[in-house]
Structure formats: structure tokens, C-alpha cells
Design a protein that fits this description.
mainly beta, elongated, binds zinc ion
Amino acid sequence: MARSTNHQHQVISWVTVDFDGCVAPDQCVPEAHGDITDIAKCSCGAVQKTNINRQYREIGPWEETAPAREE
Ligand SMILES: [Zn+2]
Ligand SMILES: [Zn+2]
């Protein structure tokens, strides 16, 4: 079953965790490293990580995580 993910992701919840590495190697913002990471979650299961350190933000791409097989 192909699952369409062509929708505009919407944040329905998020958690804040300790910094755990670069989230946007293509658009790295080194100043944003080292403090915390926000993990936003969409209703479709995709997640987007943002590293935040003081006023700096490194915004990663939405990652469509493959849901565990439960159909
Ligand atoms: Zn989504
Ligand atoms: Zn980075």
C-alpha cells in the first residue's frame, strides 16, 4: 500500500532532548550545536529535528519515518 506523504506537515507534538548531533548536514549551523534538540512530530509520523543553542537554530528536513509494520 503506497502511503501518500504529499501533505503539508503539521506539528502535532514535540519533545525536547539533549543535543545529539547535526540535524542538517546540508545547511549546517555549527553555532546551533551543543545544547538542545527539538523534535517535532507530524500526524503522519514524520519528524523534524531542530538544534537550538541560544539564538541559533539549525533546522533539519522532515524525515518520513517508516512506521512499524502493524497492518
Ligand atoms: Zn506529515
Ligand atoms: Zn550541523
